[in-house]
Amino acid sequence: MYPAPFEYSAPTTLEEATALLAELGDEGRVLAGGQSLLPMMKLRLATPGHLVDINRIPGLDRIEHVDGHLQIGALVRHADVVDSQEIADASPLMASTAPWVADPLVRNRGTVCGSVAHCDPEGDWNSVMLALGAEVVAASRHGERVIPIEDFVVDYFTNSLQAGEMVTAVRIPRGDAGTAGKYLKLERKVGDYATVGVATHLRIDGGTIVEAGIGLTSVGPRNIKAREAEAMLVGEAPSSELFAEAARAAALASDPASDVRGPADYKRAVVEAYVRRGLEACVRQISEEG
Amino acid sequence: MTVTAPRPATPPEIGGLGHSVRRKEDDRFIQGAGRYLDDIVLPGMLHMAIVRSPVAHARIRSIDTSAAEAIDGVVAVITGDALAAHGLAWMPTLSGDTQAVLATDKVRYQGQEVAAVIATDPYVARDAATLVFVDYEELPAITNPQQSLAEGAVLIRDEKEGQTDNVAYEWETGDREGTDRAFASADLVVSLETHYPRSHPAPLETCGALADIDPATGQATIYLTSQAPHAHRTLFALVAGLPEEKIRIIAPDIGGGFGNKVPIYPGYVVATAASLLLGKPVKWVESRSENLISTGFARDYHMRGELALSSDGKILAMRASILSDQGAFYADAQPSKFRAGLFHICTGSYDIPYAHVTAKGAYTNKAPGGVAYRCSFRVTEASYLIERLVDNAAWKLGMDPAEFRRQNFIRKDQFPYRSATGFVYDSGDYHAAMDEALRLSDYYGWRSRQAEGPTEDGKLIGIGLASFTEVVGAGHSKEYDIAGLKMFDSAELRIHPTGKAILKLGVKSQGQGHETTFAQIVAEELGIPFDQIKVVEGDTDNTPYGLGTYASRSTPVGGAATAMASRKIRDKARKIAAHLLEAAEEDLEWEPGRFTVRGTDQSVTIQDIAFAAYTNPPDGEEAGLEAVHYYDPPNMTYPFGTYVVVVEVDPADGTWKVLNMTAVDDCGVRINPMIVAGQITGGLTEGFAKANMQWITFDEQGNCIGSNFLDYLVPTAYETPKFTLGATVTPSPHHPLGAKGVGESATVGSPAAYVNAVLDALRRRGHEVDNIDMPVLPHRVWGAVNGVEAKP
Fold first, then answer.
1. What pLDDT score was predicted for residue A176?
2. Residue B403 needs a FRET pair 20 to 30 A away by CA distance; which of A252, B26, B184, B626 works?
3. Is the CB of residue B779 less than 8 Å from the CB of residue A256?
């Protein structure tokens, strides 16, 4: 076969799934949308011993409001986010990002939580989650815990889940009035990973920026939260000088590698241009809402 | 003479020349009911998987097949040593070099075939292939021709007697002295150094073979993804020593070829040898990655070109030197006299008195090929070089590139035109095609828009032109051959008693629509409705000999053969008609489908005549109504056109978007305009791909970057620009229908137009830039804007 041999289980409850994962330890891998895992298995870059398919577990496919958050279940597909009115209302940034994820075929199967858990620095969603200050809900045989996204994203393809744990949802704060967001992505073609991706999130209240989030894709060993740039923005009135300064700070926070998609200097320049454009787009959105 | 498309001579229900009838073959293709190689299942069939080298250059110390052989379901593991015992470890290439079938001494590129596992199940074969352990002693990898030809470079082809360097071939053409003199007297010399990168056509269907050798009779039936089944049969006979009458090659439906299915691949030979050894049918179908890393690539030409110019903008001479990266084996498919193919066409559409070309091919530790992608008689590279040079020259002279072209075009009264490299262009009206392209694209409107400056959001407008001349339809047999086989082609036409027909051809469609186009030629010539003519190709037992379909040669050669066979039938039909009408032959008038006695209403239809051919033939005439024609074209055909591209470039991230792409093609008389438009649309898309995103690169160790569709980019409908198509019609004077080949025009002609457009955008905003290599990636554009060399 294309992939190396593997075992397969399809539990129908979360309890069954977490019990199985506890038992399998490192051999177990969760299969949700499979859009990263299966291609890697096809090329034998990933050779998990046992797939735990969670697609038959009811209730994980919901987008719902929980405790002032919008919660996105582990089986919510990228395409569901594209179509979701709740998302559009709660997070302009997520709504702006979803159509940029991969291509329509992948969006129909792949899941937001799968992408978050995969921690591929070329994945789009973790930049968004970092910009929004999201939280990851993880379940194991011992129960549930909530992990702030900054603690969840550890390194290159590495999250902070413990053995036997799986992601059941990711949740974001509900966007209040005056919230805007924009995802800008440079890709060589539809379905390609980002050469550079930039997530920008702003909330403006009474002419002052009260929340700012900037996440960067494909410009470091993991998705990057441009904290200094964010800090420069909060408490200030939006202006092109301010945005240019924040964009420079974000570019400095990036740590791109030179590869077939371009040299590091180039990618840094694109980060700068896109942060500026993203912030300007946010301001335009808010003024249009008016 | 340039005219607009003439009115069709036949009504739509007959569907002769000029009718955009729907493609007959699409009924089965769009229902998913095509029958491709992998659809064929034979009783007792075994499956083969190939073990490939993970490294680019290494000596093979040993191969351990025992673990693979121990797997349940594995029937045999074949190595190069086993083939060597039968004299099959090496085979000739189509360009007179040799190529390893399974490596015995060294591996010379990543992905090279080292062993083959034959099993009862394709999955078992693939699993077992991972258990063949090869001990490699790694050698330095050479990944470009400059490295390859440098002093002290490791010898790649150390097995070739007398080979002391990495030079695959050297070749030159043109008039060196005359060219030197012209350059010495020039007011201005413009030069360009550019790399046409390696790419791959990535046909939807990968390559494969199903070999079925009957142990009792020795009859070998080999199903093959082949663009040239007859030539392949002969080569199988010569290479494998099988008697040719016992070899039957069947090329079933083919899901795209683009030259990738011209060569004979090691997998074909090994599957055939395995069937011979095991006495059972053996199927081999490669994966996508195997196709991309090991089969016929395209281009990889490092070119330097120069134009000698007078200060008033006349081109005095052209000089070009080429360094081509051939990979580990020289496996182009060039006519044997032409080591760099038809690169002679490098003077393009211009009246250039002197030209001189030198070419050198180098071996590297990369896959062999060079044969593929919609013209690798190297016209693509030549056309790209001249069209880029012409734009650079116009810029240096401060002339509008359209005006510069106009002033240097070969005029229509100069045809037939002998070029400085000795080609005789059959016909053309370059001014008319360019004028039409300028009009359709609103060229001067865009120039005015451009003069106003960048767009509101800071994008730079650029306009690029390419006025290519192609040379296709090889060829007359004095000059052109493949591995010694002359490049004629053939048609066999039989009219059945009820007036329906079967047409058998030596060419082989891979999606070009032959079942429709060639039926339309018969419809035109005989008045039989196109949908009552069955077209058969690809089965060497049941079709006449031909060299196959590549290099845009099917219509120029096979199409001409079809017309000529039809005319032989019409001549006989006239005799039968005279007999039926009791009239003299010279009193009969022909209109499509009918002979009428001049000045009367007495007539017989082709259907009446066909019936009589079997039921009531004239005395002294043979019964039946059939003809064979082998057509040896008197010359190549020279399609041409002008393409105009308008882009907007974002200087902040270097991305560029096509705002307008207008293509005016002149391929002579169009048989089915819809199919021609389809060919051009596909070619423009491929040209865009190469200009925008598509290449295969290698890292320093010789690892192929581009072994899957994540790394090797094929544009989808999202990226592909919208095209505006136009036409002029300048018939070929020597083709029976006035047609020229068109399959490759757009792939050949369009890349330069895209690149010229991006450079134009930058230059007109003050960025002096002579070249950006393809693909014109955003970071390269950004580098040009910011004056930094942006590698990689």
1. 84
2. B184
3. no
Nearest CA in chain B to A193: B710
Cis peptide before B792 (omega within 30 of 0): yes
Contacts of A2 in chain B (CB under 8 A): 126, 287
Where do we find the tokens 């001479």?
B317
* Ranges of CATH 3.90.1170.50 domains, chain B: 37-139+206-254+261-294
The CATH number corresponding to B37-139+206-254+261-294 among 3.40.50.300, 3.90.1170.50, 3.40.50.720, 3.40.1370.10 equals 3.90.1170.50
Average pLDDT of span A175-183 = 92
Beta strands at B501-505 and B489-495: parallel, antiparallel or unpaired = antiparallel
Residue B679: CB atoms within 10 A of its CB come to: 25
What is the separation of C-alpha B201 from the centre of its chain, rounded to a whole number of angstroms? 10
Distance from CA of A223 to the nearest CA of B (A): 20
Inform me whether the pLDDT recorded for B791 exceeds 80: no
CB contact under 8 A, A262 and B790: yes
> Does B710 contact chain A (CB < 8 Å)?
yes
Return the bridge partners of A166, or none: A139
Fold of A63-173: 3.30.465
**Where are the domain boundaries for CATH 3.30.390.50 in chain A?**
179-289
Report the share of chain B in percent with pLDDT over 90.
Answer: 93
Q: Which residues pair with B604 in a beta bridge?
A: B595
pLDDT at B1 over 60: no
Of 3.20.20.60, 3.10.20.90, 3.40.50.2300, 3.30.43.10, which CATH number belongs to A7-53?
3.30.43.10
The residues of chain A that CATH labels 3.30.465.10 are 63-173
Q: Average model confidence (pLDDT) for chain B?
A: 96
Banded model confidence at residue A290, pLDDT cuts 50, 70, 90: low
Gap between the Cα atoms of B222 and A164, Å rounded: 53
Homologous superfamily (CATH) of A179-289 is: CO dehydrogenase flavoprotein, C-terminal domain (3.30.390.50)
CATH fold of the domain at B375-473+636-786: Aldehyde Oxidoreductase; domain 4 (3.30.365)
Q: Which of B108, B198, B374, B570 is catalytic?
A: B374
Instruction: Report yes or no: A61 and A80 within 8 Å, Cβ to Cβ.
Output: yes
Question: pLDDT at residue B789 above 80?
Answer: no
- Within an 8 Å CB–CB cutoff, is residue B778 touching chain A? yes
d(CA A257, CA A203): 32
B56-101 per-position pLDDT tens digit: 999 999 999 999 999 999 999 999 999 999 999 999 998 889 999 9
Distance between B706 CA and the closest CA of chain A, angstroms: 10
Residues of chain B with CATH 3.30.365.10: 26-34+489-631, 375-473+636-786
Q: Which residue has the tokens 């060219």?
A: B179
Instruction: For B633-680, give the DSSP string.
Output: -SS-B--EEEEEEEEEE-TTT--EEEEEEEEEEE-BS-SSHHHHHHHH
Q: Determine the average pLDDT of the residues in A13-37.
A: 96
Q: Which residues in B lie closer than 8 A to residue A38 (C-beta atoms)?
A: none
CB B593 within 8 A of CB B526: yes
Both tokens assigned to B263: 């060569």
What is the pLDDT confidence band of residue B477, given thresholds at 50, 70 and 90?
Answer: confident
Which helix (H) or strand (E) covers residue B686, if one does? helix B673-692
Express each pLDDT in B418-432 by its tens digit: 999 999 999 999 999
Contact assignment for A191 to B719 by CB distance below 8 Å: no
Q: Write down the CATH number for the domain with range B26-34+489-631.
A: 3.30.365.10
Residues B293 and B704: their CA atoms lie apart, in Å, by 7
Tokens of B706: 């581009």
d(CA B150, CA B85) in angstroms, rounded, equals 36
Name residues whose C-beta falls within 8 Å of residue B265's C-beta, 6 or more positions apart in sequence: B207, B294, B295
